[in-house]
Amino acid sequence: MNELLDFDKSHIWHPYTSMIGPLPVYEVESAAGVRLRLADGRELIDGMSSWWAAIHGYNHPVLNRAVEEQLRKMAHVMFGGITHRPAVELAQILVELTPAPLQRVFLADSGSVAVEVAIKMAFQYWQARGQAGKNRLLTIRGGYHGDTFGAMAVCDPVNGMHHIFQGILPQHFFAPRPTCRYDEAWDEEDLTPFAEMLEQHHDQVAAVIMEPVVQGAGGMYFYHADYLAGVRALCDRFDVLLILDEIATGFGRSGTMFGCDHAGISPDIICLGKALTGGYMTLAATLATAEVADTISKGDPGLFMHGPTFMGNPLACAVSLASLRLLLDSPWQERLAVITEILSRELAPCQQVAGVADVRVLGAIGVVEMHEPVDVAAVQELFLEQGVWVRPFGRLIYIMPPYIISRTDLSRLARAIVTVVRTISSSA
After folding, report:
1. Structural domains of the chain, ranges and CATH numbers in brackets
2. Any catalytic annotation for residue 274?
């Protein structure tokens, strides 16, 4: 009997699991490159980048060195009244990388907290402008923005993961999900329901919040970039802030540095996380325009009301800085183009499987959507038999591999998905 796994099963709550009959877990002993090594000796090709964060793979010497060098200086110091070089240099590179109007950087703890920070910024902005009645948000259905209360309130209220909290969460406005997909011809009528809702409620709406082009955990749905451009224009027309949640899409995942680059637009506030540290530590950032930041700072109480204990953690900032420099010094666009090409070709056979509803690829994201929800535990074991790590949810079997993955390993991942999809469809 494995005492470690037995204790885990009895006492540890894993993400989105029950303590009664929990899903099986597998002990990882080490990780390097794109491979996870289990304690039982099995080696798996990682298709998930540890929930989309480990873009450079695991145990990378450059990132290891950044942590080691910073650790010799200081692991942590409070950010109130104190600053340090890793935080300053990270803020500098974030300002350089993100769209030009985004000039003010708030370093947070996690993606959910970055969204909370963005929402608070939007509300404080309108309070400072003497329009406290603009205290609701508008978003589109199918979105996911995190698991804290402010973030949950703008996740899809029906098909999302937080419907049991309805009546407890703040009530916001939800427009229909765009129907025009990323690779289809643009139909401007797709924007009409959103435009009508914003016209009707703009006097109450502080901000629109959206995931640009790619909706992540809400369904891995890719919508047309012109829809996002239209939303930006409508926000300008009705004097509403635009918050873009780039936690999943930031730093190349969708094929461009940021998801908003597909539409050629800039938000008023942007949320970053996940790949920010290359998967090494938890860190997020919320960037705002100077106009947003200065307006908040001039209003009552004259400061932004948020300050996490571990804000600007030096270790996290140092490894983030190293990760971003490593990304920029790499041929990341070429790598992503190769990933797109291989996934598009090798996931295509799934289109012919009876149980499959859709197959879609964008950047380093490959998705097979089933007609029915999958049995996660059973499917997980099938993938382990194929020597890969793929973690499905709901009706979605998807991969977001590290950018450094080889053609051979990526093909193995894709072929494993085809094999598993055929297996579960034939047994249905």
Report:
1. 3-59+331-426 (3.90.1150.10), 65-329 (3.40.640.10)
2. yes
